[in-house]
Design goal:
It is built from 1 helix and 4 strands. The protein has 72 residues and is an alpha+beta fold. A 4-stranded mixed sheet has the order 3-2-1-4, with helices on one face. A hairpin with a 4-residue loop joins strand 1 (2-10) and strand 2 (15-19). The radius of gyration is 14 Å and the shape is elongated.
Length: 72
Protein backbone atom coordinates (compact mmCIF):
# COMPACT_ATOMS: atom_id res chain seq x y z
CA UNK A 1 0.00 0.00 0.00
CA UNK A 2 1.42 3.37 -1.04
CA UNK A 3 0.76 6.30 1.27
CA UNK A 4 1.69 9.96 1.01
CA UNK A 5 2.58 11.92 4.13
CA UNK A 6 2.85 15.71 3.97
CA UNK A 7 5.31 17.29 6.37
CA UNK A 8 5.36 21.06 6.83
CA UNK A 9 7.54 23.31 8.95
CA UNK A 10 5.61 25.43 11.47
CA UNK A 11 7.89 28.41 12.15
CA UNK A 12 5.76 29.71 15.02
CA UNK A 13 6.01 26.47 16.99
CA UNK A 14 9.43 25.55 15.50
CA UNK A 15 8.31 22.00 14.71
CA UNK A 16 7.71 19.75 11.72
CA UNK A 17 4.05 18.66 11.41
CA UNK A 18 2.97 15.50 9.55
CA UNK A 19 -0.53 14.89 8.18
CA UNK A 20 -1.96 12.58 5.55
CA UNK A 21 -5.25 12.19 3.71
CA UNK A 22 -4.32 8.51 3.35
CA UNK A 23 -4.18 7.99 7.13
CA UNK A 24 -7.26 9.44 8.82
CA UNK A 25 -6.49 11.06 12.15
CA UNK A 26 -2.73 11.22 11.64
CA UNK A 27 -1.18 14.38 13.07
CA UNK A 28 2.35 14.20 14.49
CA UNK A 29 4.93 16.85 15.24
CA UNK A 30 8.61 16.95 16.13
CA UNK A 31 11.42 19.47 16.29
CA UNK A 32 13.52 17.18 14.10
CA UNK A 33 12.59 16.06 10.58
CA UNK A 34 14.44 12.74 10.97
CA UNK A 35 12.81 12.05 14.35
CA UNK A 36 9.40 12.72 12.80
CA UNK A 37 10.03 10.28 9.96
CA UNK A 38 11.07 7.65 12.52
CA UNK A 39 7.85 8.24 14.48
CA UNK A 40 5.85 7.87 11.26
CA UNK A 41 7.31 4.39 10.72
CA UNK A 42 5.54 3.23 13.88
CA UNK A 43 2.49 5.51 14.04
CA UNK A 44 1.20 4.96 10.49
CA UNK A 45 0.71 1.18 10.77
CA UNK A 46 -0.89 1.65 14.19
CA UNK A 47 -3.28 4.32 12.88
CA UNK A 48 -4.24 2.16 9.90
CA UNK A 49 -4.97 -0.76 12.20
CA UNK A 50 -7.13 1.45 14.45
CA UNK A 51 -8.99 2.67 11.34
CA UNK A 52 -9.64 -0.92 10.22
CA UNK A 53 -7.51 -0.72 7.09
CA UNK A 54 -6.10 -4.00 5.82
CA UNK A 55 -2.52 -4.76 6.71
CA UNK A 56 0.26 -5.31 4.23
CA UNK A 57 3.57 -3.87 3.15
CA UNK A 58 3.52 -0.08 3.33
CA UNK A 59 5.41 2.41 1.22
CA UNK A 60 5.54 5.86 2.78
CA UNK A 61 6.27 8.82 0.54
CA UNK A 62 7.18 11.80 2.71
CA UNK A 63 6.78 15.17 1.02
CA UNK A 64 8.24 18.10 2.94
CA UNK A 65 8.02 21.84 2.60
CA UNK A 66 9.80 24.55 4.52
CA UNK A 67 9.68 28.22 3.67
CA UNK A 68 12.17 30.75 4.98
CA UNK A 69 12.24 34.52 4.59
CA UNK A 70 15.56 36.01 3.66
CA UNK A 71 16.40 39.67 4.09
CA UNK A 72 17.94 41.37 1.08
Amino acid sequence: MKLTIKVLWDPDAAVWVAESEDVPGLVLESGSFDALVERLRYAVPEMLELNGTTKGPLQLTVLSERMEQVAI
